[in-house]
Amino acid sequence: MAVVRSKICGITRVEDALAAVAAGADAIGLVFYAKSPRAVSVAQAQQIIAALPPFVTTVGLFVDIARVELQQLLADVPLDLLQFHGDESLEQCEGYGRPYIKALRVKPGDDLLALMAEFPSASGILLDTYVEGVPGGTGLAFDWSLVPQDLPKPVILAGGLTPENVAAAIAAVKPYAVDVSGGVEVSKGIKDADKVRAFIREVRGG
Is 128 annotated as catalytic? Predict the structure, then answer.
């Protein structure tokens, strides 16, 4: 059985990043979107990344950010992977010298194969829950049966995942990775180390 990777997103504190890594997280997510309660400053991001050990992927989450702004941010923050979570076009995702993943918000009637095909250079596609006017972090799950099997790119499953439902989500979708934020929190942006450990334990099959 394939190993499913895990990303703990919306990290705002060094201690939460280190707890996620200690629990076995493959990646941590830093939100650079001012409207998010989990947004971090450049200084916060630098501090968190500097504290990490090797072999942990640092992912920056962006929502319709201006190119010049993102270029400046990347000069200041050594991110490994970019996550575009807004209405970005292919052209808006490329050209930063970093691999990227594109988030798609899933709703009934979507042709996920066609939507994925619009981003041929993406390293993977993140599937999140569609809520009108909200780019992500809703804490709501979508209908996992909407995801076709054997999609052509690695799928990162997000949207309302918790330690209680992630095993069922993995069984239904068979994703490359899972991504959690609110499902392992005490409050927005503050992680619960016990929940993080429980989540990753479930991802790894208990």
Answer: yes
Share of the chain above pLDDT 90, in %: 91
**Is 9 marked active-site?**
yes
Number of other CB atoms surrounding residue 40 within 10 Å = 24
Q: Which of 59, 150, 148, 165 is nearest to 106 (CA)?
A: 148
In which band, very low, low, confident or very high, does the pLDDT at 206 lie, cut at 50, 70 and 90?
Answer: low
Residue 63 and residue 60: Cα distance in Å, rounded? 10
Q: How far apart are CA 147 and CA 104, in angstroms?
A: 11
Question: How many structural domains does the chain have?
Answer: 1
pLDDT tens per residue across span 30-77: 999 999 999 999 999 999 999 999 999 999 999 999 999 999 999 999
Give the active site residue among 16, 26, 128, 179. 128
Distance separating alpha carbons of residues 20 and 105, to the nearest angstrom: 25
Catalytic pick from 9, 16, 93, 179? 9
Task: Identify the domain containing residue 155 by its residue range.
Answer: 5-203
151: domain CATH number is 3.20.20.70
pLDDT tier for residue 133 given thresholds of 50, 70 and 90:
confident
